[in-house]
């Protein structure tokens, strides 16, 4: 039996003396990254270079994207969506971030004893409608039931397979100094939408989750002919986590312009109230793209011509300075470091 050496971990907070899982390990930030890199990757014989929204593998001469994800969102139904369509769209988007055309999904349900079957039915219906809208098929699955003391309603896991076309090369290590950072629309919407309907956290807003399948938008971007180097969907940890991961993988710095960040007023107000950074709040229907400098305008035009990219804009550039670090130029002319979130800002949002 292999013993994990916690003393060798580079933990951002003093958790080595209490080596147990905490909520922050699932937040998509520094603690999540450390858990994966220090525990799972060595156990699986894998490298950090293998990490991405999906893995691209070759089988029978075809290049396939393969991804899996689990969903524990609370509440299960929120403004603009539910755990059902979130589970489908999340995996579809992970495949799309490799430039793949999503084809097939599997799903697994863990149901708590006592859960109303009408609730399970609503989730299943939402998944079926989302799959149809995304152009994918749910082809296999599994169901398990746990006793009432061992679960919390419904947990959903999905896995997906997509086909990567010839010549498509997208990955987190491809960013270069001079590249342009694009975002497809307003950020932070999903996280605030989920918070808005939680007990004691009502903001009196009409913010709806942005959950949506992005494969069509990605296809339009690739069809523009512009050199799209990196794609990420900024879910847990938000845009901040995605850009920090790209900066570290590619060895570049990222410089953002705060005045160019598309943060809607309702999200900005909610984040100000709660002391959150909109860049660290989850999204479920947005993407971040790193494109070659000469391709930015044509890719932006293709994005804006698609319904899910109508609000696309450039928000920064990749630079040779401060490699592995993301900074933002403020409205006052200063700069601030956009760090990888340490733990869980908003638990149970995806």
Q: Can you tag this structure with a few keywords?
A:
2 domains; 350 residues; HypE; 8 helices; 60s Ribosomal Protein L30, Chain: A; PurM-like_C_dom; alpha+beta; 24% strand; 14 strands; Hydrogenase expression/formation protein HypE; 7-stranded mixed beta sheet; PurM-like_N_sf; Phosphoribosyl-aminoimidazole Synthetase, Chain A, domain 2; 5-stranded mixed beta sheet
Q: What's the CATH class label of the largest domain?
A: Alpha Beta
What is the count of helical runs? 8
Query: What strand line-up does the widest sheet have?
Result: 9-11-8-12-10-13-14
Uncertain stretches:
12-16
Number of domains: 2
Beta-strand fraction estimate = 15-25%
Shape: globular
Give the strand tally: 14
Look at the helices and sheets and give the structural class: alpha+beta
Rg over CA atoms:
20 Å
Largest sheet: 7 strands, mixed
CATH topology of the largest domain: Phosphoribosyl-aminoimidazole Synthetase, Chain A, domain 2
Helix content: 25-40%
Tell me the CATH architecture of the largest domain.
Answer: Alpha-Beta Complex
According to CATH, the homologous superfamily of the largest domain is PurM-like C-terminal domain
Name the helix and strand elements from N-terminus to C-terminus, one letter apiece. Answer: HEEEEHEHEEEHHEHEHEHEEE
Distance from first to last alpha carbon: 33 Å
User: What's the rounded overall pLDDT mean?
Assistant: 89
């Amino acid at each position: 039996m292999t013993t994990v050496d916690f003393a060798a971990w580079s933990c951002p907070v003093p958790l080595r003396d209490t080596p147990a899982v905490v909520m922050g390990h699932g937040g998509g930030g520094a603690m999540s990254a450390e858990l994966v890199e220090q525990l799972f990757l060595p156990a699986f014989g894998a490298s950090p270079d293998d990490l991405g929204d999906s893995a691209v593998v070759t089988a029978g001469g075809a290049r396939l994207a393969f991804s899996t994800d689990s969903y524990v969102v609370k509440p299960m139904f929120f403004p603009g969506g539910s755990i059902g369509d979130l589970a489908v769209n999340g995996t579809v988007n992970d495949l799309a971030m490799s430039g793949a055309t999503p084809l097939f999904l599997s799903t697994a349900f863990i149901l708590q004893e006592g859960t109303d079957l009408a609730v399970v039915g609503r989730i299943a219906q939402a998944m079926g409608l989302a799959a149809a809208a995304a152009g994918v098929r749910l082809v296999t699955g599994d169901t398990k039931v746990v006793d009432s003391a061992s679960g919390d309603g419904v947990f959903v896991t999905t896995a997906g397979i997509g086909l990567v076309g010839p010549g498509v090369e997208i990955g987190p290590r491809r960013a270069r100094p001079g590249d342009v950072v694009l975002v497809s629309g307003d950020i932070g919407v999903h996280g605030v939408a989920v918070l808005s309907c939680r007990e004691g956290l009502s903001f009196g807003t009409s913010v709806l989750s942005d959950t949506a399948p992005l494969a069509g938008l990605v296809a339009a971007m690739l069809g523009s002919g512009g050199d799209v180097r990196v794609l990420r969907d900024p879910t847990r940890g938000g845009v901040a986590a995605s850009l920090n991961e790209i900066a570290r993988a590619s060895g570049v710095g990222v410089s953002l312009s705060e005045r160019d960040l598309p943060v809607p007023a309702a999200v900005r107000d909610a984040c100000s109230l709660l002391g959150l950074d909109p860049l660290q709040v989850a999204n479920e229907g947005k993407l971040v793209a790193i494109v070659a400098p000469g391709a930015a305008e044509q890719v932006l035009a293709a994005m804006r011509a698609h319904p899910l990219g109508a609000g696309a804009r450039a928000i920064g550039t990749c630079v040779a300075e401060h490699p592995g670090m993301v900074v933002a130029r403020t409205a006052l002319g200063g700069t601030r470091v956009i760090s990888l979130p340490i733990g869980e800002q908003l638990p149970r949002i995806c």
